[in-house]
Design brief:
Layout lengths: L2 H12 L5 H13 L1 H19 L8 H20 L3 H45 L6 E2 L3 H7 L20 E9 L2 E10 L2 E9 L6 E8 L2 E8 L2 E7 L3 H11 L2
Antiparallel strand pairs: 1-2, 2-3, 3-4, 4-7, 5-6, 6-7
Helix pairs in contact: 1-3, 2-3
Length: about 250
């Protein structure tokens, strides 16, 4: 996570709401960042003041009696209006919601796994067929216009040769039933395939790492586009490339 993302999670960190991986990453960042450490201390101090230093008052006896009487009346009204059919309808509705949630999560996971397999297959196929690119050029102003009229979106194309990841070219590929853009970069003769297509959702997401059949893959969405990057390059160097591409 970057500095801004960690700032956003400091409240959740102070409230012990994060998983172990994020906690360790934030703790490592706090050891090196004085600004974030001061903010985290201020958050804890504010929480302590709200929890421990606020005055407490006992409600008057008359108010307590009125509240108890109102609760008893509400309980009697609930007993009179109780219906077994209401319990059945409530349980059926809950079961339907639960089923829909499980079905949605299962379908989404299945779709994600299927796309990962397709990304790996496309990457391997491009290497075996020695057909890495349809347009071979390190000039982004040559590669980007080549896609005009071939896909219904305009991909961002950049050359990162100055950072050690030169653009090699681009090609058309097929992913999740759609024609997509495949940009090819290299790092010390290790090809990196970057697949780009319009995202189905509107929210951006940070790059997430997975590993399949010995290849490192990163997946993220940004500005309405969905990205998949895959290579046999080691994780550390591939992360450097992703940081350039996803910024």
């Amino acid at each position: 996570m970057n500095h801004h993302e960690i700032r956003e999670l400091l409240h959740a960190y102070a409230d012990d709401e994060l998983d172990l991986v994020n906690v360790r990453e934030i703790e490592q960042h706090l050891r090196a960042c004085d600004e974030c450490r001061r903010i985290e201390e201020q958050i804890r101090a504010l929480r302590h003041a709200l929890n421990n230093d606020a005055p407490a008052y006992r409600a008057p006896a008359r108010l307590r009696r009125n509240i108890r009487a109102a609760l008893r009346r509400e309980a009697k009204a609930t007993e009179r209006n109780f219906s077994p059919w209401f319990v059945f309808a409530t349980g059926a509705a809950f079961a339907l919601i639960l089923f829909a949630f499980v079905f949605f999560q299962t379908n989404r996971a299945s779709r994600g796994n299927a796309i990962v397999d397709q990304v790996v297959d496309n990457h391997v196929r491009s290497l075996l067929a020695t057909h890495l690119v349809d347009v071979a050029s390190s000039d982004q102003h040559t590669v980007k216009p080549w896609f005009d009229g071939k896909v219904d979106f305009a991909p961002d194309v950049h050359d990162f040769a100055m950072s050690g990841f030169p653009l090699f070219g681009g090609r058309l590929d097929y992913l999740d039933g759609k024609t997509v853009v495949a940009l090819v970069y290299q790092r010390n003769k290790h090809p990196i395939n970057v697949f780009i297509m319009p995202a189905t959702g509107s929210s951006d997401s940070s790059p997430a790492l997975s590993n399949r059949r010995g290849y490192n893959l990163f997946h993220w969405t940004r500005r309405g586009m969905e990205y998949w990057a895959i290579s046999n390059l080691n994780e550390a160097e591939l992360r450097q490339f992703i940081a350039l591409l996803a910024r």
